[in-house]
Amino acid sequence: MCLVEDVSERDGARHSKFSARKLCVSEGGHNCRRTVYSTDMQFTIHADGGSRGNPGPSGAGAMIRDHLGNSVASVSQFLGTRTNNYAEYEAVILAFEALTKLIGTKKASAATVVVKMDSELVVKQMKGLYKVKHPVLKGQYARLTHAVGAFGTVTFTHVPRAQNSDADALANAAMDRSSQPL
Questions:
Q1: pLDDT in the model for residue 36
Q2: Which residue has the higher pLDDT, 19 or 111?
């Protein structure tokens, strides 16, 4: 038996371009729930990268939410010895890779994404307000520009650190894993 529940008009979302359906499918006596997103989607990425020392052990973290504020994916990855700015870029790159994996490359071209970061450098470089001078960051900038190009509309916004706490926690958790024995 398959039950599809349209949740696009819940919680005042009826005027949004976003629509989601909760899909319940009984498979071998097990109920599985997953959210199926339409082709007209809106997401917010909160991303943060950090290093303990510059360069030093670094980590990237990102939280991806739908337009209702529901978490749909997260990233927390240890990066090895890197600079803080490298980690900031990597956090957003990993978030776009996770979002692409979640919704697929075909649907990505119709998606609207708002990226919120506490890294003024990355935000201003992505907006074209600052030049990218460091050779390693030029590589990161190119990778991020390529990832962003797969999506319909992408905007970058600088936010205070306090408004980026989920991503900060994920980046710190990744850095904490560097001190654990393998």
A1: 54
A2: 111
Burial of 48 (0-12, 13-18, 19+ CB in 10 A): buried
CATH homologous superfamily, domain 42-177: Ribonuclease H-like superfamily/Ribonuclease H (3.30.420.10)
Ramachandran angles phi, psi of 19, nearest 5°: -145, 145
The domain limits of the chain are 2-37, 42-177
Between CA 13 and CA 69 the distance in angstroms is: 11
The model's pTM is 0.79
Distance of CA 179 to the CA centre of its chain: 25
Mean pLDDT over residues 82-96, rounded?
A: 98
C-beta pairs of 123-126 under 8 Å, 24+ apart in sequence: 123/156, 123/157, 123/158, 124/158, 126/156
